Amino acid sequence: MSGSVKIVETRAKSMISRMRDGFFSMRYLPFRLTANIYRGCSHGCVYCYAACTHYYMRSSPNLFSKEIYVKKNAPEIFEKEIAKYEQRKRKSVIVIGNISDTYQPVETNYRLTRKLLEICYKHDFPCFIETKSPLILNDIDIIEKLAERELIGVGMTVTSYDNEFTRLVEPLVPRSKFVRSPIRQKERILTLQRLSEIGVDTYLHITPYFPFVTDEDVERIIRDAAEAGVGNVIMAPLEISGFIWNRLKKVFKSSERYSSLIPLYEKRYFESGRKLGARITTSEKEHYKLEKKVSELCKKYGIGYWAFNNPQFNTAVISGAYRLRYPILLDYWKLTHEKGRLRLKDALQFAMNFPVDKKYLSALQEYFLNGELFKGVYGVRKIVENCEVVYVPA
Ligand code: SF4
């Protein structure tokens, strides 16, 4: 046991997962490979989308932050699997820690993330880390070596500059010993600054964007990130499931300042929101307004914006580890506008410039023909020309 967190050591049979080519991944995810050393995450974010993955451990989402499974043999298995991808010439960016923060406090004892980074370096394999934790700077030496070969990207989440709100929704993310700011989440921007200075491809993740809260600070956050030399911004509004809503309500209720969010969120999500798989998100109209606002702020402060839902707002230049990625909606949207029309054979040919596999190509064919690839997207429409599906700029 470490504090009130129970650590369970396990042995993994496999380390690299290849994500499914579903609606969400085909449109928005530039990666398919993921590796998680830890199951569970002691950061305890009340909005965590990954908590339900504890069901796979025959445990409960309520224990996600209290029961951490450590795959002790992770490096050994990871290296074997990396070598297989290398042999098949299928090197595409691998996200380390997509369902648990790989730099949560337990990493200080095990240093397994560091070992995975060393393996990526040894095999020239591109990787991406998304974290909220300042502990990433413990590994700045190996990260710098990876950055010299453009093999690493790092994204850090910043959603609010209000310390009370941060304590409510992300109660256990550690403070930084490397960089200090009276604003807790600003330390993440300062961490990104350190990483940008050594050539790492850096991303500010405003994920999740909390309606009525992030609004207060979003301009300062984007300005600070731009001044810190961060490469691009990614934004996604908060999504709510029944489990997440119960937890959010509890913490909002406990705060005099934030209890008024409950009726506002009920209206925004349960009255006018839309379903997104098992969760509810804000309406298309709200999402559009938010993307427009964030992209305008990014333009104002000179930082790229990687627009996923509304490609017309994109200003991001994708480089670094994401050179070796899977194409997404944004790429096909741009291609349609460049070529004036997009046929299936063009889309497939384009995709083959990326390190995609056969599964992806057959999913692309399906999503292209059934219209899901561009469904509801601004600026592109589907036509049928000589019995062939074609997309044209609208
Ligand atoms: S850091 Fe990420 S994985 Fe960990 S609790 Fe927070 S949202 Fe979940």
From TrEMBL:
InterPro entries: Elp3/MiaA/NifB-like_rSAM (IPR006638), MJ0683-like (IPR040086), rSAM (IPR007197), rSAM_sf (IPR058240). This is Radical SAM core domain-containing protein. Keywords: Iron, Iron-sulfur, Metal-binding. Residues 27-285 form the Radical SAM core domain. The keyword Iron applies. It holds the Pfam family Radical_SAM. GO terms for molecular function: catalytic activity; iron-sulfur cluster binding; metal ion binding. The keyword Iron applies. SMART domains: Elp3 (SM00729).
